[in-house]
Protein 1
Amino acid sequence: MRFFNRKKKETGAGAAATPQIQRGDRPPFGLLGSRSPLLTGDKQLYRAIREAVPLVDACICKIIRLCGGVRAQCDDPRADRELNLFLERVDVGRGQRGINAFLDQYLDSMLVFGQAVGEIVPAADRRDVAAVLCGRVEDIHIQDGGGPLDFQLCGPDEYGQVKPLPQQQLLLFTPFNPETYAPYGVSLLRSMPFLTELLGKIYYAIGVNWERMGNVRFAVVYKPGDGEWERGMAQERSRQLASEWSRAMESTRNGCVRDFVAVGDVDIKVIGADNQILDSSVPIRQILEQLVSKTGIPPFMLGLNWSSTERMSTQQADMLTTEMSAIRRSLTPAVERICQMWLRMHGYGCGFRVVWDDINLQDLLEESKAEWYREQTRKLALENDRMERESGLHTGGPDEDNVS
């Protein structure tokens, strides 16, 4: 059976429905206006934000790690064993193997750029999947069709012209948080440029101030006396003072202590010692709170002691679990397409489902207590049911055994 032939559009009962809600302002130049390049200026901006703010980079890495691993569960035991072996050993390029390594790259692109692009690479005989690769969104254009249900991924051909890629069924595309006016996804860092710019200005000012005040500079002032001879020797004594002071500072830099001896009225002051550096802890914390809240990572996981109570940390962990589940729902269709392609290539028609690893952010002792309480409740409920059956009484009405 050939899986990669381009199928003709069906006409009749099985044809795709035409949506009524679609854009009516079609451009006058046909396909030129219907293409949306994924390479925009904000892509470089988001990459710069991640490189400039370590906290943002740490949040993205933790989200990727917390999403955990994935596996498939098939109805056929043989297919289940072979499919999971394929998911563990599939080549994902750059010396990496396994579907989890692919999802790490795929999710990284989806969070930072708002879209992720992948490709299922078949073997030469078209009977197996040779690799699953993650692509660069900068190299991809999206061409809208007749409506929101019809779009194609485009890329440059051997002549450098952007055209629809020939094997659309082998391509993977996942938008992150698609919106009405941004149907192809938005970046997790979309609302961060303004705050990161302020944060960069604060850190730059701190660095400049420490460069000026931390590296101490001295002002040596010689005041000659009232005598004519003193005023005549002022220039010569100034040169001697400058020479001796330079020798003393040079010895200090080399690790030696050397005293400075001067004759006359000599005043030595530290330049900038009276000025104070502004306290930046409050504005930096306010900005970091906004950035961390956008990522959904609890502050205590980043080493930030902002949570005042243990209960607050528990609630933040529960919210993080919900966030990870939502991200997994976005990745599941891509994993399903990979598994379905492999099963069909190997002749399996059984059903399957994608199973993610459990997200466990709670204390094991608290979970054990909760499980124990549930078992106690279940035990009491069974005892109450047994006592009611023995006495012939039920809460909802008369004895059911006597009802005809």
Protein 2
Amino acid sequence: MKKILILITAFTIFSCAELQQVVDQLPQGTTGISQLDIANGLKEALDKGIEKQVSKLTATDGFFKNEAVKILLPEELQTVDKKLRQIGLSKLADEGLKVLNRAAEDAVKEATPIFVDAVKQMTFNDAKNILMGDNKAATSYLQNTTTTPLYGKFNPVIKNSFTKVGADKVWTNIITKYNSIPLVNKVNPDLTDYTTNKALEGVFKMIAVEEQEIRTNFNSRTSDLLKKFLHYKTKIKFNIQ
């Protein structure tokens, strides 16, 4: 048997489909990384992203002072914001924006158990698809498996949080004042649904940031397993006759 070493650099030499075919044909034990290593490496990467990035969002100003995920007003309320500032109610407008973000920060505390469960349920095929995927493949996996349960958790928490942080009173006051202005189109937005969806967007955006960092920055790989897994993401050794 003649041993030939072939170095495959993912994303630059072969397409994902071609690389997938190579991995499928590898004899067991010749890649230097087992199926269990692949699955565990991915789970560790996902857990790291969740721990590092999602936890940041739960802190005070985790949304409000993070320009990447800060929740801005929906389009129909941008006119409300502008009009309130024109009539000297800038402080009220600022408070209205802040309480939306406070509610999102509160809700994201419910996310971690759902993410942990999704990671635990990940199969080897899921792991292999992520391995062969683009730099947001793991994030996409979490989006596909957790968006519905996360919405179900976030929505009531945000609704309750609106009461806790005073958002319901603030926005009732804002909308009442705006709707009392002559000749304006009356508004009655569903801010709970809007904030829930924006909170979800923020969570996945920050996980994507961490996934990109782990994939491209060797110093972000904080364990031997993670380093081994991501090394074999791009360089695969195998024997052929």
Protein 3
Amino acid sequence: MLSILIPVFNYNAFSLIEKLHNQALELNIAFEIICLDDASNLFINENHPINQLENCSFTVLDKNIGRSCIRNLLAEKALYENLLFLDADTLPVHENFLSKYISLIDKSEKIVYGGILYERIKPSKNQLLRWIYGTKREALNVSEREKNPYLSFLTLNFLIKKSVFSKVTFNENIPNLRHEDTLFSYELKQKEIEIIHIENPVFHLGIEDSKTFLRKSEEAVLGLKNLVDSNLISQDYVKLSHYFQIIKKNHLTTLTAFGYKVFKPLFAKQLLSKNPSLFVFDIYRLGYYCTLK
């Protein structure tokens, strides 16, 4: 019936698994929960009790294989046709989380995305940038997501059939620099596989501090540039690469890169403050894009 697939890396996933396990038992369905740990250094002992839960497994890989490879490996290990992917640092918002997904299982080839939420209470100052970005850019309701159904899709909470996953897997040849979900959604769009958006969110709990998020955002820009330069996605698919092309066509790349380097300390100071601006964050990433060769 349902294989619940969870990649784990340096996170205590037991609470998530326990919650899912209890919901699945109440529904009296055939299920399994497979957790693959991508060679973590932390929380191994905390996650091992997952193996004591019925139909649940927790396995630590010998070496780190990255976000794309581990999702493909999870799908390969799954017994059932219906695959529910969840990130380890999430937690279902509602007690009928699994039943909502199960009610939408049929023979059609589609993906169902439930959405994401962030807790309403503001975190500490050093986590505000990630929280504000998530709240404003990721935690969208169904009507907002449906305006751009493919780019609004995130890979931390979605249902897919094995038959669909065999047509669009995660690309294992790209660098492990994020945007694997962007490429995945682009390929779904190219193959005209429908994404159904529903209100069935999970809380995203693993919020990085602002310095870490800023560094990872730079990695993501590099990853996006790699996808565009490799012709894996259209340069107009993501706003950031689209705006870069406009700058490039107007021969402003060098000037923009220079401005970024000059003002980078001020940008960083603002983004690490108690009132980070997403407009400044966008300018920061666009300027960084222009510095890349």
Protein 4
Amino acid sequence: MHTKEEKMKAFGRLLDVLDDLRERCPWDKKQTNESLRPNTIEETYELCDALIKDDAHEICKELGDVLLHVCFYARIGDEHRRFDIADVCNELVDKLIFRHPHVYHPSQIGAEEPRPLPYGTETGGGEAGAGTVSTARQVVENWEQIKLKEKDGNKSVLSGVPDALPALIKAYRIQDKARNVGFDWEDKKDVWTKVHEELGELQAELRNEDKERSTEELGDFLFSVINAARLYRLNPDTALERTNRKFINRFNYIEEHSIKMGKPLKDMPLEEMDALWEEAKREERNKRLK
């Protein structure tokens, strides 16, 4: 792997090329925060796609695309004399130091006002996991308390959850943040009572054919299932995406066979599609066993 000096040189090369493109390329010249935003969202999803596939080459490539956008926004900030990439890095480092008193300020754990080290100060002393923080979960709980004390930090426990997050991920983050301040089930098994309760209420409204109430109860039911996943340390977004991919692969298998048979899918009996579906499942299992 590369040395720190080589990494710094590569990052400097990226900034040099971006500066060059901003000055000489017609497309790069005209970009703004607003015009880049849709592309940033797309690049982020492409990175997430590579991550779930665990494709190292694609992850590396997509990380580069996301990094380009970070540097591009910083370049635009620099042009407007608002901030530059150094400000972005320093702001991040100062925040990391402030939020990790168990690493940089062991003596400050539990103190009323943890103090960040100024930029450029030698951190020295203290071991990770020192003081009362010894597990990853304790770190996160401490983190949430510290964020409420930051000058420009969250004003409330849930204010740090972005409004624009996809609903499934947003529900998980809301529940997780509430857990970090002690609002959670004492016994995770108790969540299943809530799941069954919400399912019953949904089924009742569906029988009543009340669309508005059914929509509300469906939301409550999904929220409770996500809560159960969180308590059992399962990522519901990852789980659902795996199921999406599984469905796509199996349905594509059916469609491919319908094309080979010269029979349109809409003309294929459901029993025949079910048989091909089961065949696709068997092939998946055989591939896993190899």
